Amino acid sequence: MDRAPRRAVSGASGSWRILLLVWIPLAVLYPLAVLALYPEPVTVQSIGRSLITISLAVVLAAGGWWISGRLHWPERPGAGFWLAHLAIALLYAATWWMMSGAIRSTLRGAGPAVGAREALGSVYLPWNLLFGLLIYGLCTGLAYVVRAQAAVRAERLNAANATAAATRARLAALQSQLNPHFLFNVLHTTSALVRTDPESAEEALDRLGDLMRYALDRAEQETVLLRDEWSFVEDYLAIERLRLGTRLHVECRVDPVVLDLPVPPFSVQPLVENAVRHGISPRPGAGRVTITAAPFERGVRIDVADDGAGAEPAQVERAPGSGLRTLRQRLAAGPWPGATVAVETSPGNGFHVRVDLPAPRHAAGAGHEAGAGA
Questions:
Q1: Residues whose CB falls within 8 Å of the CB of residue 11, separated by 6 or more in sequence, listed in order
Q2: What is the pTM of this model?
Q3: How do strand 262-263 and strand 224-225 relate by DSSP bridges?
């Protein structure tokens, strides 16, 4: 359905809601007012004529919806705005009273022209003009209220859509920063093996193909299964073991329960890469990287620690690049309310990163998305 039909349907729906709200109380009050003012006995016919008259008034007042869409409510209503509505209201009231007189006259067999003339000469003309003004004001005022509420809802929806679009763009930008950074580091490792150990370099190239396939396939996804992310980490560690040999010791403790939980792509591998490149590679001897993943608040807690040189905490927070800072930004931009990234380090005491990932918003949808790309 395109925009024009949608607006037409919305306008018709708003108009009929207003008419129903107005007609119900008036259908009760108007006959009572007529019976109190008019010196005629209460009969089924008199009540019926009153209901016909007030129903005609409400139906004619549907034009108030159309007018509210053409004569827009200004920021500061001036005299011209009110005079325009007063002129329209008087025209509406006179038209209503003449048409109701014509209908009543037709029902009793005297003809519509007779009824219209009688309505204009009736002693009750001023009262019914006033009543018509009130009905017009009520219907048109409600029309402005409904339109204002619809405009507020539309603004909120547009703002929410704009925020969501900005968040998606921000997340995509962060992802685009991370992928080239990771691929550059792996290619650098593989190129070093080509010169020193061709057989290991061939194995590394096979692993690199799996790494690049994961990086390309998951680049547009918001979540993946931890099982897939963990397989990606294992491929990366296999390449680093070829490069570092016995210098790299890795201890993994991954609870099978959490393997099918959704996590952001590239949420574990950058932490492991930081531990290997900054904690193990610079030191002359062997080093250890410990990786754990365990249940946490219907989500997962991931710990990556190394026994390297460590650093000053303030220095870590100020460091440029796309590591911990980028991971924090990605978690903040994605569907991960309450996710945290905590760092424990000091000179000579290694580096420990803990990531707490509670269940994401729309976790069911996230799981399907992750599974679809597996």
A1: 65, 69
A2: 0.51
A3: antiparallel
Beta carbons within 10 angstroms of residue 218's beta carbon: 22
Mean pLDDT for the stretch of residues 187-211: 78
The dihedral built from the CA positions of residue 51, 53, 59 and 61, taken in this order, carries a sign that is: negative
pLDDT at 168 over 60: no
Say which DSSP state 72 is in: P
Please indicate, yes or no, whether residues 145 and 292 belong to a single structural domain of this protein. Answer: no
Q: Are 272 and 240 in contact (CB under 8 A)?
A: no
Distances, alpha carbon 183 to alpha carbons 115, 123, 212, in Å? 89, 91, 8
Q: What are φ and ψ of residue 157, in 5° steps?
A: -65, -45
Q: Minimal CA–CA distance to 224: which of 264, 183, 170?
A: 264
> Residue 43's domain spans which residues?
3-157
Burial of 242 (0-12, 13-18, 19+ CB in 10 A): buried
**What is the number of helices (H) and of strands (E) in the chain?**
12, 7
Q: Are 207 and 126 part of one and the same domain?
A: no
| Beta pairing, strands 299-306 & 351-357 | antiparallel
pLDDT score for 307: 92
